[in-house]
Amino acid sequence: MELMSDPVIVATGHTYDRQCIAKWLQQGNRTCPVTGMRLRHLELVPNHALRSAIQEWALAHGISLPKHYDTTQQPTFKADEHHPKNILQGHEEIVWAVEVHGSRLFSASADKTIRVWDIESRRCEHVLEDHTRPVLSLAISGNRLYSGSYDFTIKVWDLTTLTRVKTLTGHTDAVRALSVADGRLFSGSYDGTVRVWDENSLQCLEILKGHTGPVRTLVHAGGCMFSGSYDKSVRVWDVQTLECKASLTGHTGAVRALVASPEYVFSGSDDTTIKVWDVHTLKCVKTLEGHEDNVRVLAVGDNAMFSGSWDKTIRVWDLRTLECVKVLEGHTEAVLALAVGEGGPTQGSKVLVSGSYDTTVRFWDLSTYRCLRKCDGHFDAVRVLAAHNGYIFSGSYDGTIGVW
Q1: Is the pLDDT of residue 81 over 80?
Q2: How many whole angstroms separate alpha carbon 217 and alpha carbon 148?
Q3: Helices (H) and strands (E) in the chain, counts
């Protein structure tokens, strides 16, 4: 048995001899050798307790150990040295949602906080701390920020003072989706309900019941709020009367994603398909097939709808013909996030941006569907994306925010 001469703790909490782990990191590894988990930072913290125990044991057994632990010859790893300036650090857990308002970016995390970032300086201005469990969803309306959490509540924040205005209670499980329409906040929960709140009084107007499983996603279109659920259905609620106009069925797996164009609502499911619903008649116009695994995310551009899947591909669907016109390949793991933003090769042109379990962000030219660039910087899956004013923001499982 070889004794550690200088035990240090890595980000996962495991202890290694400094010389050994430093060599491991110098070779470009960014994971814990024992667990294989990605390290959220590369700082090596001395394990004084273990060092003292080793010294006492060695003394009792007549074993000689170095009196001084010279670390000057060992590489020093600091998080900032391994994160480019466009990678914002602060969250300690997964980033579940990102929203932009003016010159600020808001990020919600499993660490129970919402961070407020100044986009220009890329500094964290404030940390909103009031939730008691992971924050899963964000929505911005007027001068208010709404945050939904695993603690079953929705917090209402004033965007000027960055203070909490009120806590909305009533849900009996996690609040996974938030959407605002016509002065009303809709909250979708794992408790199977959608609650409707008046934005002025912040009182609950109605509890929309009907789903038999968790509500995962919401989208507003044609004067209605559409809710997608793990019960394999999409329900349609009139925004004004709050009546259920229809229950859209046909999927054979959970509905995880909804997006809307002026004419259609698209629902993406674990059954590998996307269903197209006419906004006016609420009839299924077509079922889009082609993906070989769960459809996890959808996005809409001017002329196309985009779908990302666990099969590692992105499919491009023409909004006029509803045909697949291209399959974008390049990601080596599941595609978890999509966004359409500015930044194409010509002035005023747009790009499709994708985030994946493979830790990368990819930019695709919307005229040629060629991959313009692949961006590294995150150490774990890219879970969410937001586009605003020429910027793309990515939130990752490693707790960081990418600015591209």
Answers
A1: no
A2: 13
A3: 3, 35
